[in-house]
Specification:
With 102 residues, the protein is mainly α. The protein folds into two domains: 1-38; 41-102, no CATH class. 61% of the residues lie in helices and 8% in strands. It has four helices and two strands, in the order αββααα. It has helices at residues 3-37, 57-61, 66-73, 82-95, and strands spanning 43-46, 52-55. Strand 1 (43-46) and strand 2 form a beta hairpin.
């Protein structure tokens, strides 16, 4: 084989590899774009700065947080040790039917 044949073969192989790499990058961009823009239970919100954020409907209801709501209703629990706070919190959730077993 002559040197020209080798250059032709190397050129073809380089083009094929470039094509494969381009297709892979397109596929990755497509997957990333889908994951970022197609969140099934999310609602897009535009903030005052004009940026877009996604949040689930549950996030809107839990802005303050259920644990913070518990502490607001029972401020005496703020003085307890964390383990005792969690024990009281679990009981508080049970009393309101907020457990998986209910």
């Amino acid at each position: 084989m002559s040197q020209d044949s080798w250059l032709l073969i190397v050129g073809v192989i380089a083009l094929v590899l470039l094509l494969i790499q381009t297709l892979q990058l397109r596929h990755i961009k497509k997957l990333l774009g889908r994951n970022l823009s197609h969140t099934p239970l999310a609602e897009k919100k535009i903030s005052s700065e004009g940026t877009t954020s996604t949040s689930t409907p549950r996030d809107a209801a839990d802005e303050k947080g259920i644990f913070d709501q518990f502490l607001d209703e029972k401020p005496e629990c703020k003085l307890l040790a964390k383990s005792e706070q969690l024990k009281q919190y679990r009981q508080w959730r049970r009393d309101r039917g907020m457990t998986w077993s209910s």
